[in-house]
Structure formats: C-alpha cells, structure tokens
C-alpha cells in the first residue's frame, strides 16, 4: 500500500472504478465524455474551464490531466495561467464576499 | 538542449540495439502494457504486410545545421553520414522504374548533401507525380550558398514540407534551438514570395507540427486552423496543409522522455490512444525508406533503429519492388507512435 495519499500513476487506473460498480461507473464516464465534446462551447474552451476548476477543487490528477490536455490542444501557458487566475479569483471572491456577513454581524452586535 | 548528437556524445542511446532493448524491457516485459505485436494481433493485423508501394523516401544524410531535441535521426552538424553520388545513381535507376507516385527526400538537412542539386535535377526528370523535399527552413538562411533554394525548389516544382513545431517563438526555439523561429518565419516568407502556397500557384508548401514535449498531437484540422490564423495575422504567411506528427520514442526523443521521467507515461498515452483503424494506414505499408548508404527499411524510424527490411532484397543495388512488396514489416513498441489517435505518418494523420 502506498504511503502517500496521491500517486500520479493512479490517474491511469481511474477507469477501474467501474469494476466495483459497473452501472454507475459506465454512466459517469459516458457523461464525462459527452460533456467534453464540441458543443455550444468548443472542446478547447471546456478544457480551460476544466483546468480552472481542477485548481479550485485542488485535484492533482485533474491538474495533470488538463495541463496535458491543454498542451495537446495548443493552448498556451499564458492562457492556462489566466484560467487558473479566473478560478482563483472566484474562489477568493467567495471567501471575501463573506466579509459582508462579518460586517453585518459586527454591526448588529455593536452598539 | 545539447549541441551534440547522441553519437558524438557516445551516449548509450546512440546504439539502436540499446534503444530496442529499452523498448522491450520494463512495462512491456512485465506485461503491464501489451507489446505492439500482441496489440495488432488482436485485430488480425499480424504479421503486418505492405500494400501498394506509393512513396520512396530517401535519406540523403544525417548531417544537419540544427540539433533538435526531439530528432529521431540524431542528426546534427557532427554527423558525417552522407549519400554518395554513386548511391544516388542507383536510386535514380530505381526512381525511373518504380510504381511509387511520390519521391520524398529527407535527412538531416538534405540540402547539405553536396550532390543535392544535381540529384534533384536528375530525379525531377523521372516523371514522379509528387516530389517532396523535407526542408528545415533555417538551412535557406544558414549560408549564402543556400539563399537561392526557394528559386531552385520552384524551378523543379518541388513540394516543400517543413517543420515548424509551433506558431510561437518560445516553443519552437526550445525544441529546435535559439533563433530557429525567426529564421523559419523569414524562410517561409521567402517561399511565399516565389509563389509557394499562393492562390493559383501549383507550388505546395506544407508544414509539420510535432508536439514540443511528452504529449500527443491533437486534431490535425483544428491545429491547421490555429496555425493558419496565427501565421497569417502575425507574419502574413500562407501554407497549404499542416501535418500533425506524433513523436516516436526513439533516439533523442527517447533520451528526453527518459531524462524527464516521462517515458512510462508517454508509452501509456500511446497505448491508450491505440487506434486499430490507424493500423490500416500506417506508412510502412506504402513506403520504402532508403538510407544514405543504400539500405532498405520499412520506414525512417526503422532505419534509425537499424531494422533492415525482412526481405531477400535489402539494398538499393538489388532493388526489386515485387520481392519487397512480399515482405513482413518489422515492428516494435515504437510503432505505437504511428497508431495513436488519428494515426501519424510523414504525411500527417492517417485517418
């Protein structure tokens, strides 16, 4: 058993989750595949969204996967970093907007 | 990036035998991944047999003005292997009688062969339908004696196929050396100026894209659109088609994969992306590759791995197309590079 929680080689085994629950695993991977097809958004745009979300949910497997996916699609490192900032801005905004709650509570409790 | 070839550095990996061992050890020996032979056998493609011969590819020598980090030829200025005029003459006899419709000159930088121009002049008289020269572009600007190459290519109606790893400077220079991007752009503009890839012109100029790192090329048509848009907007450059080529895990690219600890992941990517439909059209089924010293191979990659054709006929001096077409093609794990995704060949995607 590995002594670390994350092993990069585990990403290759992702498909194996289907072995312990075939129906749900298959449904998930079908859905996943469909989501990233060309649609109203291009596959390229979706790849950048996935990269940003990968950072926000702090998934090392997803970061590896969508950095490589971006390279394959010819996405530049500047575009990738801007996507990461977009994710980070929303995440920090989500923290900061709670500052209003803090302010409300402060004011309510203060004479 | 090293400025010397593996051979000049006397690196272990300059040995084809060592490369073939590496490609059969580890993940393939332990059965973690299937060998290429087992994989193509699943779809009834073993043994792999040639179809109609369409392309004769001649390697005029391993000498090159560049030392690209991904080069499967291990080419560079320190390589002295050059096709002699005598071997060229033997090739001309074959070209005159072949059933192939395409002649494809490569290297190294084929233009550095001292008999290159004589050979192009002679070969262009043989009535071959498509006459390709694979030019690295920077050679045109490398020395005064090469400056007129665009006119020379035009005069002989040569179809120019050129590597440009990316439409941005940074990635191109990283793979091919500092300054390569600017020189390549200038060379492309010179080719456009003499009529290459211009409306109404028959002069064809295609570009080759290969990934600058341990990842696979994506959709060729999408990449072609990106390249066309960027090169037109930024540099007013036109070209005809983009060929997306997968880097095969041999020679200097194999060195890079091992040194950067990407080898296993890369092989997994290739095997995961294995496409049985691509096996139908692998270039070894329609190509014969001829080395600088006249030996015959199933493809340029097998040439670099010193895997001569499995046929009674092994040398240009005894060339016989019927006998050659009856051979079994020699395969190893590097072949996964040509069957991944949409397939890969010297003419780009195969499906």
Description:
The complex is a heterodimer of chains A (111) and B (351). Chain A has a domain at 41-109: Up-down Bundle (AhpD-like). The termini of chain A are far apart. By secondary structure, chain A is mainly alpha-helical. The model of chain A has no long low-confidence stretch (mean pLDDT 95). The radius of gyration of chain A is 19 Å and the shape is extended. Chain A is built from six helices and no strands. Chain B has 351 residues and is of the alpha/beta class. Chain B has a single domain (12-338), classed as TIM Barrel (Alpha-Beta Barrel), CATH 3.20.20. Chain B has 14 helices and eight strands. The two termini of chain B are 33 Å apart. The A-B interface holds A 8, 12, 44, 68, 71-74, 76 and B 166, 168, 211, 213, 215-218, 222-223, 226, 265, 268, 272. Chain A: It comes from Zunongwangia pacifica. Chain A: This is Arsenosugar biosynthesis-associated peroxidase-like protein. Chain A: Residues 23-101 form the Carboxymuconolactone decarboxylase-like domain.
Provide the low-confidence segments of chain A as ranges. Answer: none
Mean pLDDT of chain A equals 95
- Count the beta strands of chain A: 0
Shape of chain A: extended
What is the name of the CATH class of chain B? Alpha Beta
Secondary structure: number of strands of chain B: 8
Work out the radius of gyration of chain B. 19 Å
Share of residues in helices of chain B: 25-40%
Strand order of the largest sheet of chain B: 6-5-4-3-2-1-7-8
Indicate the CATH topology of the domain at 41-109 in chain A: AhpD-like
CATH class of the domain at 41-109 in chain A: Mainly Alpha
CATH fold title of chain B: TIM Barrel
- Quickly give the structural class of chain B: alpha/beta
